[in-house]
Amino acid sequence: MLDGELFISSVSILWELVHGDEYLRRISALASLGERPLAFDSNVTFFVGENGSGKSTLLEAMAVAYGLNAEGGTSNYTFATRDSHSILHEGIYMERGRLTPRSSFFLRAESFYNVASEADRCSMRPGLSGAMYTNPVTGGKVLLHEMSHGEAFLGFIQDASRDNGLYFLDEPEAALSPSRQLTLLYEMDQLAHHGSQLIVATHSPVLLGLPGARIISFDGGELHEIAYEETESYQVTELFINNRERMLHELLEPRV
Questions:
Q1: Predicted TM-score of the model (pTM)
Q2: Which GO terms describe its biological process (predicted)?
């Protein structure tokens, strides 16, 4: 990047270009992007919010509008197993920096099986042996489907990411154990310090603890920045750890 310039400096929605899906307009946080753009001023931005608040929908739309596959992968991935992504990308307007990222990808834990299948299929083509990935446990080069889900997910990120890259991650913690989430946090920090920009939708109190990251909440009907300690992920986790017996009693004891 040039003097810390980001690859994406803001995003807004031109609703007049989004046709036929009234459901999207009823998501308040997304509707607000038609009036005020969301500015990016940190190398790592987290999207947080309750299920259905629009964070993954916006992340997916931004990735697709940037030219990435809706099911995941790098810009070279063009496969489609099911056309299930929203049409929101049609109205996405992103203010971009002057430079093009060295690499980019979109990953979501729920569809990574399809990404791994495509990577393994490509590895069978002549001259494409580079589709082998490093197993983060053994260090050996193997096909993605020869690793566990979490190993393959982390191995893909470690091998496919580069300095000065742009990366979209949708709930990556779903594929990773707590210790592997710490490994991903380290990888994200290294990428951020070497010019990469990451936009991540997550519920993970581990990932959200990354120093210097900006956290955008989709709760309450409009996008707003919050502190780490204000996230529901942190508050609920802290409450449960510190008051486990009381919370379990209140949740599980039968009511008369």
A1: 0.89
A2: double-strand break repair; iron ion transport
